[in-house]
TrEMBL record, chain A:
Domain NADH-ubiquinone oxidoreductase 51kDa subunit iron-sulphur binding stretches: 429-474
GO molecular function terms listed in the Swiss-Prot or TrEMBL record: 4 iron, 4 sulfur cluster binding; FMN binding; metal ion binding; NADH dehydrogenase (ubiquinone) activity
Keywords carried by this UniProt record: 4Fe-4S, Iron, Iron-sulfur, Metal-binding
Species: Planotetraspora kaengkrachanensis
InterPro entries cross-referenced by the UniProt entry: NADH-UbQ_OxRdtase_51kDa_CS, Nuo51_FMN-bd, Nuo51_FMN-bd_sf, Nuop51_4Fe4S-bd, Nuop51_4Fe4S-bd_sf, Thioredoxin-like_sf
One Pfam family in the UniProt entry: Complex1_51K
PANTHER family in the cross-refs: NADH-QUINONE OXIDOREDUCTASE SUBUNIT F (PTHR43578)
Similarity comment text for this entry: Belongs to the complex I 51 kDa subunit family.
Protein name: Formate dehydrogenase subunit beta
Record CDD domains: TRX_Fd_FDH_beta
TrEMBL record, chain B:
Cofactors, names only: [2Fe-2S] cluster
Matches recorded under InterPro entries: NADP_DH_HndA-like, NuoE-like, NuoE_N, Thioredoxin-like_sf
Protein name: Formate dehydrogenase subunit gamma
Flavoprotein among keywords: no
Residues reported in the UniProt entry to bind [2Fe-2S] cluster: 83, 88, 124, 128
Keywords: 2Fe-2S, Iron, Iron-sulfur, Metal-binding
Organism: Planotetraspora kaengkrachanensis
Amino acid sequence: MTASGQVATVYVPRDSAARSVGADEVADAVAAQAGRPVRVVRNGSRGMLWLEPLVEVETPAGRIAYGPVAPEDVEGLVAAGILDGATGHPLCLGPTEDIDWLRDQTRVTFARVGVVDPVSAEDYVAHGGLSGLRRALSLSPAQVVAEVTESGLRGRGGAGFPAGIKWKTVLEAGSELKFVCCNADEGDSGTFADRMLMEGDPFTLIEGMTIAAWAVGASEGYIYVRSEYPDAIDTLRAAIGTAYDQGWLGKRVLDSELSFDLFVRVGGGAYICGEETSMLESLEGKRGMVRAKPPIPALEGLFGKPTVVNNVLTLGSVPMILADGPAAYADLGVGRSRGTQVFQLGGNIARGGIVETAFGITLGDLVGRYGGGTRSGRPVRAVQVGGPLGAYLPTSRFDLPMDYEAFAAADAMVGHGGVVVFDDTVDMAGQARFAMEFCAAESCGKCTPCRVGAVRGVEVIDRIVAGVDREKNLKVLGDLCDLMTEGSLCAMGGLTPMPVKSALAHFPDDFATTTTEEGR
Amino acid sequence: MTSSPPQSLEDRVRSIVAEHRDDRGALLPILHAVMEEMGHVDPAAIPILADELNLSRADVYGVITFYHDFRQTPPGRKTIRICRAEACQAVGAAQLADNARARLGVGFGETTADGAVTLEQVFCLGNCATGPSVQVDGRLYGRVSPEQLDGMLEVGA
Ligand SMILES: Cc1cc2nc3c(=O)[nH]c(=O)nc-3n(C[C@H](O)[C@H](O)[C@H](O)COP(=O)(O)O)c2cc1C
Ligand code: SF4
Ligand code: FES
Ligand code: FES
């Protein structure tokens, strides 16, 4: 009780997941019931989402965590002396950094998320912010591109394309006007890392985009954020305003030769606009119709100009790579999957949230050791990895290492790192049907295999489950999947068969009718 | 922004466009601003937007209809969006969806006859570890129980 009477610093996240379960009310209760002056900092979330709202109190021995805290718990917590870091209350989790779930991670891209005040420029710099940009500006653009290439960083948006190679193409493209576009459309169910980085450490994204601008010779940048993320939009706009005030954006960034203007643009609620060429069309103010490639966006992107398009996590990893050098990043990971991936555990999971760790961790470790199995307490039956276009996997595949190539070899994909868990009540024929339904609803409509195939897919699955011409319709479904895979212009139609075929392959019994006489 | 005497739809649309004069590819930001100010994009705005932006009416109409966010009729006094994507399906989203439709007597994308509630579906709100998720007038709720949803559907007297 040494610090009694001093102003206590209390952290209550502003992250929208924390707010969705009452963080604002908790923050208000702390301020109202503290009985002494407190400084309430609205930080990002540490990513232990099952513990939200997670309250932390600063003490001389570091931050002490309490959670999950309901507004009505606050009075008791204050009475137990948490403002002095008392550890006796049942909700006390001990020092935040010692919670094994967090301690066992390798936080690189998420190093500051949950730690800092997201909109404080001072906090950002105090926690190592801008050192990547300062170093980048001391190098030539070609040297920066070389370092990003050496780091082995691959696109985190799904396809895993090497970032350095894309940047080199843009750098070498001759044009007065070039763009850097951040894909923050994050439409995949089960993914929320882009959102949490934008809400919890927006300056890192701004810094990463500014480094990209220097590296490729771009003067203008856009962050395309989905409209479903109003908090992220507000936080980014506030942070961009601050960055201009600080001289981190605009003319002569940090007194260098670089001038870079950055804008936030809001999507229109269309999943397909996460596909990069659809996003570019949308940024141009048009319908989000997918463009045929070539030309690639690196050469003819936004308004036909050379354009870097990268995911939030790709760009958000760049400041650390430049600050600590490419070798430090490349030393992490396995095979051709270098560095860390920010995995997101969601769905029916006991301990959901953000697990940033080197590539190579097994799926079973993520779901079991970190995730703690299902929230319902029932057995895990299926896991969908990589969003709505990713495969459904049974627990017998839990030995798979999280690595782009290993997943591809197993007819699955890592994608944006989302892992969605289902318990044994799931109906996999229903999930396969949903995959087709989703594709039908969200197709941009440009090509027939996707637009028409997905509608047909729903009908065929319905017939199979109803037991109508089962064998024939299973064959029709197989052919339809092949047609969509082969004949679609983009991965929306091209990958929708992945969840469908994996559900069929791993959970065939779910596609049998209840009254079947044909067996499976 | 200062408030001036009530303006015609045309004046309001033209002044929104004026604020976005320097934006590249301004149509989406303009449509969002129109939605923000008026709650929907009145079809009467289409020829005005086309004129201002040097586009055809078909172009403007095509953009409005492509995106789920842009509606052409006024929404209810309250908008409830239920997440129906996979991670929320895994924790009971289907039941919430069924309950909401049954209680309100409308389908997704529809507004109750008294204009009180618009019910919408959405595919992921980025709250997938703390689902099922529901958004009420832009505010996000997580771990929503059927009882809690009942409370949200209750329209304040
Ligand atoms: C249907 C579809 C949806 C996509 N959605 C996203 C998305 O929400 N966010 C994203 O970063 N990439 C998404 N992508 C991948 C992008 O097309 C593109 O590969 C990516 O933005 C490139 O950035 P990266 O190399 O940093 O990953 C999607 C692709 C497809 C086919
Ligand atoms: S596959 Fe589907 S989403 Fe992709 S271009 Fe074709 S119709 Fe559009
Ligand atoms: S993508 Fe939604 S209408 Fe086509
Ligand atoms: S699936 Fe519902 S919030 Fe992501």
